[in-house]
Backbone:
């Protein structure tokens, strides 16, 4: 990722680049709206697809030795955003955090959704954050069997890591960093 800084050193824009290590060819994917780290970028297991946070959604790119092309955008409901894409063990499955923001009278929701990477459509809700909490990170282990989630609450302010076990959220650590990583 390339970053452009302003006169005070603050980041003004980010650009995502892909480099083919065998050929040295660099491809510019354009403006990157994710965080200035790799939490908003995910490769599938065979390196043929790349998921990148793009505004409120996630763009899926197909890669091959000579080109890179965007093939799909994940479908996101109005008033919601997608974040932390991660490919799952099934070839066309990708998980992402969907956060929908509430109004003055209602609280927002945060869920882990599974999408079909070929169509961009959601296929399942894997987990919902407890009332008053939101997911901040998702990580799937190499086997594809275990999901670790970063969960934060604003009142009282807490951050913890939770593991999804048999469709239940189980606390793994209290006072944890909010981005979950295996």
Residues:
């Amino acid at each position: 990722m390339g970053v452009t800084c302003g006169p005070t050193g603050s980041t003004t824009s980010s650009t995502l680049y892909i480099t083919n290590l065998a050929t040295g060819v660099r491809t510019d994917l354009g403006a990157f709206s994710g965080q200035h780290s790799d939490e908003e970028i995910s490769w599938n297991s065979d390196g043929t697809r790349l998921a990148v946070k793009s505004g409120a959604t996630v763009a899926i790119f197909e890669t091959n030795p000579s080109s890179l092309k965007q093939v799909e955008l994940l479908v996101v409901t109005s008033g919601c955003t997608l974040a932390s894409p991660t490919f799952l063990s099934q070839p066309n499955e990708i998980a992402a955090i969907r956060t929908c923001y509430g109004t003055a009278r209602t609280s927002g929701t945060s869920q882990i959704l599974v999408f079909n990477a070929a169509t961009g459509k959601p296929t399942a809700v894997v987990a919902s954050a407890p009332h008053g909490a939101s997911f901040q990170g998702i990580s799937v282990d190499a086997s594809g069997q275990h999901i670790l989630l970063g969960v934060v609450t604003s009142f009282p302010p807490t951050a913890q890591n939770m593991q999804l076990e048999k469709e239940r959220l189980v606390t793994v650590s209290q006072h944890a960093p909010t981005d979950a990583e295996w």
Notes: The chain has a mean pLDDT of 80. The chain is about 0% helix and 60% strand. The longest strand covers residues 11-19. The two ends are 23 Å apart (CA to CA).
